[in-house]
């Protein structure tokens, strides 16, 4: 029968348990390789592969930017949304200054 095994995650280096029931499950599925990653990293990878989560920082699609004029200081700026016209648009500086209050 199977016994719990301690494996080392190749992503984060954490020791994790490859439990007897998991080993059985793997054997049933015909997997010959032991899992190389801890459950957390496996879940994170899965999420990334599904395009969800915030892990894929390097492949984040470029956000479309819209030219706008800052309502406070009047400089040309770019905002990540289409300026609607009925709401003042602020540059990054003025925005962070405003949101602080
Ligand atoms: Zn890990
Ligand atoms: Zn401004």
UniProtKB/TrEMBL annotation:
<feature type="domain" description="CxxC-x17-CxxC">
    <location>
        <begin position="63"/>
        <end position="98"/>
    </location>
</feature>
<dbReference type="InterPro" id="IPR025306">
    <property type="entry name" value="Zn-bnd_dom_prob"/>
</dbReference>
<dbReference type="Pfam" id="PF13451">
    <property type="entry name" value="zf_Tbcl"/>
</dbReference>
<dbReference type="Pfam" id="PF23477">
    <property type="entry name" value="zf_Tbcl_2"/>
</dbReference>
<protein>
    <submittedName>
        <fullName>Zinc-ribbon domain containing protein</fullName>
    </submittedName>
</protein>
<feature type="domain" description="Probable zinc-binding">
    <location>
        <begin position="3"/>
        <end position="49"/>
    </location>
</feature>
<dbReference type="InterPro" id="IPR026363">
    <property type="entry name" value="CxxC-x17-CxxC_dom"/>
</dbReference>
């Amino acid at each position: 029968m199977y016994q719990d095994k301690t494996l080392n995650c190749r992503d984060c280096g954490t020791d994790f348990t490859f439990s007897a029931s998991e080993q059985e499950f793997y054997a049933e599925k015909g997997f010959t390789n032991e899992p190389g990653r801890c459950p957390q990293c496996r879940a994170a990878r899965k999420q990334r592969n599904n395009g969800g989560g915030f892990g894929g920082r390097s492949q984040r699609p470029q956000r479309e930017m819209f030219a706008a004029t800052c309502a406070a200081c009047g400089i040309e700026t770019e905002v990540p949304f289409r300026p609607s016209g009925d709401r003042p648009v602020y540059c990054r500086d003025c925005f962070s200054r405003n949101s602080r209050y």
